[in-house]
Amino acid sequence: MVRDNKKYLFIFAAFTIGLCGSFFYPLSSLFLVEELNASPMMLSLYMILSVGSSVIVSQFIAKRSDTHWSRKTILVAALSGNFIMVLSFTVIRDYWTAVTIAVVFGSISGAAFGQLFALGREYGDKYVANSTSFLSTMRAGLAIAWVFGPPMAFMLKAQFGYSASFALSALTVFIGLLVIAKYIPDEVVSKEEKIEAVSNKKSVGGLVVLYCVAMVCVFSANTLYITSIPLYLSQELKVDVSWLGLLFGMAAACEIPVMLTAGKMAEKVGTVRIMILSVVSGAVFYLVMLSSTTFGAMLAAQLLNGFFIGICATLGMVALQDMMKDQLGTASTLFSNMMSISVLVSSLAIGVVGEIFDYYSALYFSFTGVVIAVGLLIVFERLEKKQRIEEALRLQSVVDK
């Protein structure tokens, strides 16, 4: 570990990618409805096509990045696609044009997250003392961008219109693109090393599937909460709208220090074990939200929520990378795609729950999701431990022979 001077560039790159997204995505659905006159069905179609194409294309690219494609080249191409997409939205005034741009260029830009964090993991393993803490700091940089990015986007929209926010998003990603193209290292791991690693890769398919299902449960529960709580507070509890900003702000304020210290916690307790504790914290959080209607209790409960999301959003990817060390691009992109799939699941769930029950009932579904996730992660931990023991015994038998 002889060099770590470029680690701050990775953190800056994560921050700029997060900032670009935070200027664009919170406004995109509102833009489609208000400016392009999209119906609820058209909005759902846009989300399904844009997210679905991103998942398929980014996973296709990720597999090739683990063998012979350059991660930096993919990253530059993905950010270029992102730049074209958000810049196009400053002038688009037709729904189907927006869908086409999102599917063509947005699907390519979906590879950016996975490739940046795969390249960051390779760099961290080679040059940084604690690569888990390094990745946690990168993830925190992305999260910080989402703390103040959306409020800035809505202020720009209110003062100057959608085009101003989308133009700022384009400028941000362009700056990030220049920094990455000029300063981020290219081949931390050589093509020969990649090919050798993939040719010797271990079969972890069953564990990966189990883990991914648990992550979909976790992030679907969280996204369903984020989507439903504004409606629950405003339409059913009839409380002051300022509650929402304070609750979300408190959760974000708690997430950042958790993300920054997640690596050290994982080193002491174990990655999967600390994740199980965080999901249990999430279950307790939803119980408090289900049983309390006072602002003080809800605000205090955000400490639990911050620990829950801070750990899962950070170490969730690290755990998957640990399982697939010979396929870091695939692992990082798979984690990103699990979060995208969670958005689709929660989007469908909020419509069903709101129509059949009420928005308060969405908290029960979120609670159920994290309880299922706890069970799956406990099973995963035991199976992973069993696999490690069997692997150690197999190696020992080879040595004895």
Summary of the model, kept short:
α3 packs antiparallel against α7 (162-183). This protein has 401 residues and is mainly α.
Description:
The chain is mainly alpha-helical and 401 residues long. The protein is built from 14 helices and no strands. The protein has helices at residues 7-34, 40-65, 71-88, 95-109, 111-127, 131-160, 162-183, 191-199, 205-237, 242-269, 271-291, 295-323, 328-356, 362-400. Helix 1 runs antiparallel to helix 7 and helix 10 packs across helix 12. The radius of gyration is 21 Å and the shape is globular. The model has no long low-confidence stretch (mean pLDDT 86).
Keywords:
single chain; 401 residues; mainly alpha; 14 helices; transport; transmembrane helix; cell membrane; transmembrane transporter activity; sugar transport
Helix-strand string: HHHHHHHHHHHHHH
> What is the rounded Rg?
21 Å
Helix/strand class: mainly alpha
Kindly report the average pLDDT value: 86
The helix content is: over 70%
Number of strands: 0
Residue stretches low in confidence (pLDDT < 50, at least 5 long) are none
Judging from the principal axes of the Cα atoms, what is the shape?
globular
Ends apart, CA distance between termini: 35 Å
Q: Major sheet, described briefly? A: none
By DSSP (H or I, 4+ residues per run), the number of helices equals: 14
Bin the strand percentage: under 5%
Keywords: Cell membrane, Membrane, Sugar transport, Transmembrane, Transmembrane helix, Transport
Pfam family, one: MFS_1
Main location: membrane
Family: Belongs to the major facilitator superfamily. Set transporter family.
